[in-house]
Design goal:
By secondary structure, this protein is of the alpha/beta class. The chain has one domain: Alpha/Beta hydrolase fold, catalytic domain (Rossmann fold). It contains six helices and nine strands, in the order ββαβββαβαβαβαβα. The chain is globular, with a radius of gyration of 16 Å. The N and C termini lie far apart (43 Å).
């Protein structure tokens, strides 16, 4: 399997008016959230971009090589974080957004979305944008490098709306860690819409409907 596979592109219409860059979780690939996108009924044509994380050894999984946006050394709450890997993935996402802008999609029409590790990269990247985005979907995730976020968050990024969702029974990223990230983001001045569900580290049907409603609202605002 090549590290450099191009992203999967899905367009819901002939002339997309906004883009959603959707980042998968640890060990998955870009195909993981294609079925979710296919279920969403949004008010404008959308170009979905599903990149594949690089292949890398993951310490917590015994060094097994898999697709990962960054290394995980131990349990998320307490372990040293892979700052180099996180910032490298931020650069990859910035390049994807630049490509969308070259295709005529303005930053305020671009959403970042991600699950677990992918959601962590989406949050990390959005906070450091000098030009705000249409919104961030952060699913079953947390804010990485939280100590640097307060220093590096760009003032204009604070108008980027954030949707966060978490399972109350999540055994991978503890529910309390998601709540703590939500509270920190709100403390930094971000508007975070929070949803919680009786589920583990996954996505449920009600969550999909809530995502659809939130995206619809943000898209309407972007084009108003």
């Amino acid at each position: 399997m090549s590290e450099n596979r191009p992203p999967i592109i899905l367009q819901s219409g002939k002339r997309p008016q906004c883009s959603i860059i959707w980042l998968h979780g640890l060990g998955a690939d870009g195909q993981d959230f294609v079925p979710v996108a296919e279920e969403l009924d949004l008010p404008v044509a959308v170009r979905y971009v599903f990149p594949h994380a690089p292949m890398r050894p993951v310490t917590i999984n015994g060094g097994y090589v898999m697709r990962a946006w960054y290394d995980i050394v131990g349990q998320v709450r307490d372990a040293r974080q892979d700052e180099v890997g996180i910032r490298a993935s931020q650069l990859l996402v910035e390049q994807l957004m630049a490509h969308e802008m070259e295709n005529g999609i303005l930053p305020d029409k671009i959403f970042l979305a991600g699950f677990s590790q992918g959601g962590a990269i989406a949050l990390h990247t959005a906070l450091r944008r000098t030009v705000p985005l249409a919104g961030v979907l952060a699913l079953s995730t947390y804010l990485p490098l939280a100590e640097s976020a307060s220093r590096e968050a760009q003032p204009r990024s604070r108008i980027t709306p954030i949707f966060m969702a978490h399972g109350r029974n999540d055994p991978v990223i503890p529910f309390a860690l998601g709540e703590g990230s939500r509270d920190m983001l709100r403390g930094l001045g971000y508007v975070v819409e929070w949803h919680e569900y009786i589920m583990q580290h996954s996505v449920c049907e009600q969550e999909l409907r809530d995502i659809e409603s939130w995206l619809t609202l943000q898209i309407k605002r972007a084009f108003s």
